[in-house]
Write a structure and sequence with these properties.
By secondary structure, this protein is of the alpha/beta class. The chain folds into 2 domains: 171 residues, Rossmann fold, CATH 3.40.50.1260; 192 residues, Rossmann fold, CATH 3.40.50.1260. It has 16 helices and 17 strands. Helix 12 packs parallel to helix 13.
């Protein structure tokens, strides 16, 4: 087991906490503060235990000078101040004399947020490529490092692996919650165990499928990737999305696991991908040649429900339709309703799946919604996450 923030005496210690404040911001206004709120238990614990808290986070991708104003963390500092009910000191720099002086004057219980770590990417991608000197510099600001940014734990950055290489370290409560949620899924799921997979491309999920198909009782396939499987089984899919390079993979998988791969039996189709368009619900054998499959139909929902209702463990990764457009959101909402009626362990992958279940108002009815799309995929692929591997064992 990894060490956690609980394993250290924080009193009067300068504690560097890598958080995930990669939130959507438009014109300086935060559109969704879910990730900020998710960091509060760890930050609050550090404050209550007398730490001098120094927060680091990335926001967006910084490729030009113009990106800096777009991905400025100052609005996050203001929102965090409101949530903590105390002033969060913000330094509009990632290193230098002002940073060092501010750190040296921190008092126990105070919180400092440094500017976006990816500002350092303008100079040779020093953050994203884990520049040794940068990681060493940030480590020099503190006495203890806590990684609570699950969303970046699949990458080796200067602000996670770099700092952890130089300091005593552990994980925060959000990271612990994520790892605890995925542990039974990966190691000892209670059966029946159902995996619901959606999203656009088969290529994005190959390693997830290969890792989970032997553990799960069935894989329910929806979303754009379903049409590649349907074409691989010899059906016409009109102008639907198709991952041509992976038809052989789909054929091989269906042949090897004929009772585990469950595909849609009907589809909600349209000739154009837009809100106002004529839609047709058809059995998959009746595709029009100019039609695009954009959601699962109600017969597929009934089919999927036979597996979902009796499952003790459910993993959902990827919407089963283009939920962003209302005409094609009904399949994904139907899956949400089925999960609401299930009292087993339900884990929802990050990214679009998390966005869908929150947008549709069903977030309170599942066991865990991951905050990390790429990181959760990495775990589901059976990979070691670099930002976690570097953390000290108990």
């Amino acid at each position: 087991m990894k060490k956690t923030i609980r394993d250290y005496n924080l009193k009067n210690k300068k504690v560097l906490i890598r958080v995930d404040f990669n939130v959507p911001i438009q014109n300086g206004c935060i559109q969704d503060d879910t990730r900020i709120k998710a960091s509060l238990p760890t930050i609050s614990y550090a404050i209550e235990n007398g730490a001098k808290v120094i927060l680091l986070s990335h926001l967006g991708r910084i490729e030009t000078e113009e990106d800096k104003s777009k991905y400025d963390l100052e609005p996050v500092a203001l929102r965090l101040s409101e949530l903590l009910n105390q002033k969060v000191i913000f330094v509009n720099e990632t290193r230098g004399k002002l940073v060092e002086e501010t750190v040296s004057h921190l008092e126990s219980g105070q919180v400092l947020l440094l500017q976006n770590t990816r500002y350092e990417d303008l100079d040779g991608k020093k953050e994203s490529k884990n520049d040794p000197e940068l990681g060493s510099y940030w480590a020099s600001l503190g006495e203890l490092f806590i990684n609570d940014a699950f969303g970046t734990s699949h990458r080796a950055h200067a602000s996670n692996v770099g700092i952890a290489s130089h300091l005593p370290n552990g994980i925060g409560f959000l990271m612990e919650k994520e790892l605890t949620a995925f542990e039974p899924i990966l190691n000892h799921p209670e059966h029946p165990f159902t995996v619901i997979l959606g999203g656009s491309k088969v290529s994005d999920k190959i390693e997830v499928i290969e890792n989970l198909v032997t553990k799960a009782d069935q894989l329910l396939i929806g979303g754009g990737m379903a049409y590649t499987f349907l074409k691989a089984s010899g059906l016409s899919i009109g102008k639907s999305l198709c991952d041509e390079e992976h038809l052989d993979f789909c054929q091989k998988l269906m042949k090897q696991y004929p009772d585990k791969i469950i595909l849609p039996i009907d589809s909600v189709n349209a000739k154009e991908i837009k809100e106002e368009t004529e839609i047709n619900e058809r059995f998959i054998s009746d595709f029009g040649e100019n039609e695009i499959g954009l959601d699962i139909g109600h017969n597929t929902v009934k089919l999927f429900s036979q597996y979902i209702k009796d499952s003790k463990t459910i993993l959902w990764n990827g919407p089963v339709g283009m939920f962003e457009l209302e005409p094609f959101s009904k399949g994904t909402e139907a899956i949400c309703k089925l999960l609401k009626e299930n009292d087993g362990l339900i884990v929802v992958g990050g990214g679009d799946t998390a966005s869908a279940i929150e947008k549709l108002g069903y977030a309170d009815f599942v066991t865990h919604i991951s905050t990390g799309g790429g990181a959760s995929l990495g775990l589901l692929e059976g990979k070691k996450l670099l930002g976690i591997e570097i953390i000290n064992e108990k």
